[in-house]
Amino acid sequence: FFFSLSLFQYKFRDLTVEELKNVNKTYPNFTFSMNTYTFKDGSQKDLLNFSGTVPVKYGKSYNIPIHLWILDSHPFAPPICFLKPTANMGISVGKHVDARGRIYLPYLQNWSHPKSTVIGLIKEMIAKFEEELPLYSLSSSDAARQSELLSYIAKITEGEIDMKSKSKIGGGKNEGCFNKITVVGAGDLGIACVLAVAAKGAADKVVLLDLSEGAAKGGTMDLEIFALPNVEISKDFSASADSKVVVLTVNSLGNAQTYLDVIQSNVDLFRGIIPAISHYSQNTVLLVASHPVEVMTYASWKLSAFPKSRVIGVGANLDTERFQYILTNLLKAQVLAKDAWIIGEQGEDKVPSWTSCNLVANQMEAMTACNSREKVADRAMEVLKGKSQRSWSVGLSVADLTDSILKDKRKVHSVSTLAKGCCNINSEVFLSLPCILGTNGVIEMVKLEEDPLVQEKLQSSAGSIHDLQQQLKL
Questions:
Q1: Is 114 within the bounds of a domain?
Q2: How confident is the model over 241-292, as pLDDT tens digits?
Q3: Are 334 and 460 part of one and the same domain?
Q4: Per-residue pLDDT at 37
Q5: Average per-residue pLDDT in the chain?
């Protein structure tokens, strides 16, 4: 093997060579070489890599081209795996493959030497591809775009381009669009967001990215039939290029049995979406509406590598707006309403809080005013409990948030933001807190009135969310 001479930087050279001999025996069509690999942080290394095809039966037999990179700590670290489609093949983004063709498998996540081997990895890859074919045949009109994408991927893997580069594939076709929003997911929530954003009039263009299989149906078909101005429907990630805000509404509809399985399924779905969105809109603000919003916002932040200010969740914005409305219009407590917020975890564990005490100097009067405020807040919370969050109401909330971002309104909203450092929270969790929003997302977090009970509830929510995140495979 010529490559045995090139593995001087590999820590476990003999083990690596022995394993790759076994790969060569089983898959003699694979070709081996040494090339430069560029990691997400821009660092580069010369790594052994090999490519070839693996046989997959999906109705009929297919040869799926793959490209594996062997890290210099192999076999104690898993390979980095990609599809290697030809110009007439398109990548089917799914549970195990993202938009760049990066392959994610349980085998890789659970890699452990000596139990895990490259041969075992390829066998699982074949099994998973037989459940969900990762490639499809492109029409001639799509082949040119695919060729451009393949060229970009080749440059990444050959170390010719930095992942943080400003260049964008297909970015030119939307250059005339100043305020552009992309909504990812064409379910009821996604369509509600499109309609609400379009009605608000804040965006010059709204793109609905429909990632569902098959032809357009249901609401998507109706949107096409009645053709709203400045609304585009697409299945291609490149249509999202140069978006100022990207709204994520997708939720996995898999057959998960437990709550943890449902969330893991959503994380797996995001793993195929966020890198592509981040590539086409590198300066966008990610606005997460998928459930559970705190965990999915955290996942979006980790997968995008964006600064925390540009990854936010819809959080308790809708509840806060309703809370303030109830205080002002139903309970006639206008003075209280302007400083009232719903914060923390979306759902039953949300908690009312205040950014100003509005109390008088006399301690006795202050205590009376405080008790009065709490009674009014309790009544408002009772009314709020009867209000469900329908798709259209969440859509209106999303439109409200995007309007503040696009128009740089510097308005305060209760949104899911990184709460580490607030209220003695030491873990990386996202909770709803009052934040000033502008063009680049969160400008500043607004200081809350100190309340030991509120802080205790926030810390409890942070603890349970952190425990859940620790069980997920990101």
A1: yes
A2: 999 999 999 987 666 678 888 899 899 999 889 998 998 899 999 999 999 9
A3: yes
A4: 87
A5: 82
**Same domain assignment for residues 216 and 133:** no
Q: Are residues 299 and 244 in the same domain?
A: yes
Is the backbone peptide bond immediately before 434 cis, with ω within 30 degrees of 0? no
Q: What is the spatial distance between Cα 353 and Cα 342, in angstroms, rounded to a whole number? A: 6
Helix ranges (H only) for 158-228 are 188-200, 219-226
DSSP annotation of 230 reads T
- Single residue among 82, 103, 137 that ends a domain in this structure: 137
Taking alpha carbons only, the member of 306, 312, 297, 249 closest to residue 279 is 306
The residue segments making up the domain with residue 85 are 1-137
Question: Three-state SS string across 258-309, please?
Answer: CHHHHHHHHHHHHHCCHHHHHHHCCCCEEEECCCCHHHHHHHHHHHHCCCHH
CA distance 413 to 321: 9
Range name among 124-128, 262-266, 271-275, 326-330 with the lowest pLDDT average: 326-330
Percent of the chain past pLDDT 90, that is, above it, reads 39
Domain boundary among 137, 164, 197: 137
Q: Specify if 273 maps to a domain.
A: yes
Average pLDDT for 423-447: 93
CA triplet 271, 127, 273: central angle to 5 degrees?
15
Q: 466 and 325, same structural domain?
A: yes
What's the confidence (pLDDT) of residue 191? 93
Distance CA 46, CA 53 (A): 23
Residue 204 located in a structural domain: yes
pLDDT at 314: 96
Q: Number of structural domains, the chain? A: 2
Strands (E), 138-263: 180-184, 205-209, 231-234, 245-248
Q: Taking a C-beta distance cutoff of 8 angstroms, is the pair 166, 96 a contact?
A: no
For residues 220 and 115, membership in a common domain is answered with: no
Residue 132's contacts (CB-CB under 8 Å, 6 or more residues apart) are: 92, 94, 95, 96
- Do 361 and 461 lie in one domain? The reply is yes
Average pLDDT of span 187-202: 92
Q: Which residue has the higher pLDDT, 116 or 219?
A: 116
